[in-house]
Amino acid sequence: MFKRMVEDIRTVFERDPAAKGYFEVLLCYPGLKAIWMHRTTNYLWRKKIRLFARVLSQVNRFFTGIEIHPGAVIGKKFFIDHGSGVVIGETAEIGDDVTIYQGVVIGGVSSEKKKRHATIGNEVVIGAGSIILGPITVGDCAKIGANSVVLKNVKAYTTVVGIPAREAGKHIVKDHLPDLDHQKIMDPVKNILDELKVKISQLEKEIAALKKMSGLK
Q1: Domain range 2-186, CATH architecture
Q2: What are the Cα distances from residue 207, in Å, to 102, 161, 170, 199, 216?
Q3: pLDDT per position as a tens digit, 74-116
Q4: Most confident of 11-20, 38-47, 178-187
Q5: Phi then psi dihedrals of residue 124, to 5 deg
Q6: By Cβ atoms counted within 10 A, which residue in 19, 22, 128, 142 is the most buried?
Q7: pLDDT of 112-169, one tens digit each?
């Protein structure tokens, strides 16, 4: 357990350049406290001590602003930056090296007692305010742009943005570190409009050529 805690602290330094010292990380990073408490509540949940697990998860929410259901399965080196408003549902499964920002919701779309929440792969980055709904799969190394609403599966190494989220392109992950250059995310709607402009321009030229051939003005 101690090794995991040290790994979590190192993860904060890797992902957040604002982190200056160990005491600052221990005292000022609610995401770190939330994941430590979740490991306790998840252990209790798996041991069928579920009421106590739920109570502790609500204590966790009160002190950190982050709500993680005790049943959620979360991998190593999970980093929540800022954290306020994050909600992770009961049947969510999150891989290793995942980074999420404030306001992210991994929610369900069914009242049935079955798999209702997303499965998130390894090395995924989920931007602030994003909502991922239903038992979908987000592939390894995917990026979800801020304020996106994801309703369908996301392929590995793919960036999605928008409401509903649409594929904006592919990217490469270097040195197994998350790509945090959110300002470089492409806009799929703009790309479509740019393509339409090119096609309209070509059509106008063809129409002008036909008019010239037929003697029309």
Answers
A1: 3 Solenoid (2.160)
A2: 52, 36, 36, 12, 10
A3: 999 999 998 899 999 999 999 999 999 999 999 998 888 899 9
A4: 38-47
A5: -90, 145
A6: 142
A7: 889 999 999 999 999 999 999 999 999 999 999 999 999 999 999 999 998 899 888 8
Say how many Å lie between the first and final Cα of the chain, rounded. 81
- Phi then psi for residue 90, to 5 deg, are -55, -45
| Structure token digits, residue 205 | 């030229």
Angle between helices 30-46 and 2-15 (to 10 degrees): 140
Kindly report the number of other CB atoms within 10 A of residue 144's CB atom.
27
Residue with tokens 């570190």: 177
Kindly give the pairing relationship between strand 79-80 and strand 99-100.
parallel
Q: How would you classify the pairing of strands 131-133 and 149-150?
A: parallel
